[in-house]
Write a structure and sequence with these properties.
Length: about 250
């Protein structure tokens, strides 16, 4: 375990306090308000999904939580500490990790080399890196492609590699931006299994998704974003019954 990382992690929140709390978070790009006054509470051990049509502000909200964007107003609080203006590397030390929507693997390096790069970034001591690389890739079902260039594996395998790389920091809170995008139905269900297992092990996970079969497989708490705002929150059965949600997906609202 990396000592620096341990020191940077904060004490557990009190029982009735959220792990992560967004209060009136707003992010503008020029005249466009991509994230508009968003309030969101995530508790330790939650599995929470953010859904909503394209352009709803989901990815921007993730990047604002992770310190890649500064909120124009509002606050992001993690374990009672205001992290609104912290840089991504500090948040990584505190236990945050993200898989972005756009691919971030090194296409010309092998799958194994990508994993080693990610592990090296977060390790100070000497560990058996080769063993750990194999173990971690095996856990994602990627042991058969360890020596393949990352640019040549299938789309689904690349998503799993991205998740494996995000897990290299052993995060406490994991943000996954569209992890099932472009996957076959079988791959989608396997991705749901991976996420369920991580959550059962105690990891707090926030997922952006489009695919309702993926959402259905996990039965998470859901927040619907639309035009940068929280449109509604609830479980899938409630969300699916909501006619206004159906309308925003069909572009009628
Ligand atoms: P989603 O992930 O829900 O599809 P995004 O957060 O990617 O939505 O985008 C929300 C809005 O913000 C879109 O209108 C998009 O074009 C705009 N946007 C996102 N990132 C930037 C940026 N870096 N600069 C300018 N506009 C952006
Ligand atoms: Mg997006």
């Amino acid at each position: 375990m990396n000592a620096n990382k341990t020191d940077a992690r904060l004490a557990n929140p009190k029982k009735d306090q959220p792990l992560l709390q967004l209060t009136n978070v707003t992010k503008r790009f020029g005249g466009l308000t991509a994230v508009n006054n968003v309030n969101l509470e995530i508790r330790q051990g939650d599995l929470h999904f953010l859904i909503g049509p394209n352009g709803a502000g989901k990815s921007t909200l993730f990047k604002t939580i992770m310190g890649y964007h500064r909120p124009d107003s509002g606050q992001v609080v993690y374990r009672s500490t205001d992290i609104s203006n912290m840089d991504p590397y500090l948040l990584a030390r505190m236990g945050f990790s993200i898989k972005f929507q756009t691919p971030s693997v090194y296409q010309d390096l092998t799958v194994g080399q990508n994993m080693i790069v990610a592990l090296n970034r977060h390790r100070t001591g000497t560990t058996d890196m080769e063993r750990e690389t194999i173990d971690r890739l095996q856990a994602m079902g990627l042991h058969g492609v360890v020596n393949m260039p990352a640019g040549r594996i299938s789309h689904g395998q690349r998503q799993w590699l991205e998740i494996a790389l995000a897990l290299a920091v052993d995060p406490e809170i994991l943000l996954l931006d569209e992890p099932s995008a472009g996957m076959t139905p079988d791959e989608t269900l396997r991705t749901a299994d991976i996420i369920r297992d991580l959550n059962k092990q105690g990891m707090t996970i926030i997922v952006i998704a489009h695919d309702m079969d993926f959402v259905r497989a996990l039965e998470p708490e859901i927040t619907v974003l639309h035009l940068g705002k929280v449109f509604t929150q609830g479980r899938l059965s409630e969300i699916e019954r909501n006619e206004e949600v159906q309308q925003i997906y069909l572009g009628k609202k």
